[in-house]
Design brief:
Chain lengths: 110, 114
């Protein structure tokens, strides 16, 4: 299975943009890149996903490198409610597993 | 509201006493799955189901059973719980598996086996 690598933790000041990186050098051509986040004492929450092109939604933006071996989740203005563990994961066509690594714990400083 | 509902949220039980954790979704999703989350180990898949009466093992199925008699329900059964099954459990669902869809997770069940 393709693996992802993320920094263990990151900090951001409130109302500043946050760029959360993810490396996935063994990604295959049919793998989608998904991002989830988990707030304390809650289940994981879907954030965004993409295949090749950059994607935007109301929560965040996803920037995917041209070679697809890395991606960056962008929170445009971090709020205290964005403090969570963010997981980058790959889901391939025909795969029935969603594998989460240890993720990046984002702290937001007021 | 579209959601995945797990019950109970918290459960303390004794070794060997059979228990069931229920999971129900109201989105008509065909794919459902169970995960456990342990410190330092991340989220690991226990079982999944692609449709009614279709289930398969994930990464850590030992000690667990599941059933999918109805589309909306996917209970997790521990026939003889042991302390190493103390964990945080999540149920998730998704439309018939398609990499372009995200998963919806329940709020979790914290199980302690003493």
């Amino acid at each position: 299975d393709a693996k992802t690598t993320q920094p263990n933790s990151m900090e951001s000041n409130e109302e500043e943009p946050v760029h959360l990186p993810c490396n996935h050098s063994t990604i295959s051509g049919t793998d989608y890149i998904h991002w989830y986040r988990q707030l304390p004492s809650q289940g994981p929450e879907y954030v965004i996903h993409g295949l090749t092109s950059n994607v935007n939604n109301r929560m965040a933006s996803l920037a995917i490198a041209e070679d697809r071996k890395s991606s960056t989740l962008i929170l445009h203005r971090a709020t205290l409610r964005d403090a969570a563990v963010y997981y980058c994961t790959l889901t391939g066509a025909g795969s029935y597993q969603l594998t989460f690594g240890k993720g990046t714990k984002l702290s937001v400083i007021p | 509201e579209a959601q995945v509902t797990q019950n109970p949220r918290y459960l303390i039980t004794v070794t060997g006493k059979k228990l069931t954790v229920t999971c129900s979704q109201n989105m008509n999703h065909e794919y459902m799955s169970w995960y456990r989350q342990d410190p330092g180990l991340g989220l690991r898949q226990i079982y999944y189901s692609m449709n009614v009466e279709v289930t398969d093992k994930g990464d850590v199925p030992e000690g667990y059973k599941v059933s999918r008699k109805e589309k909306r329900n996917f209970p997790l059964i521990l026939e003889s719980p042991s302390p190493n099954q103390t964990s945080l459990y999540f149920c998730a669902s998704s439309p018939l598996y398609d990499s372009s869809y995200g998963y919806t997770f329940g709020s979790g069940t914290r199980l302690t086996v003493v």
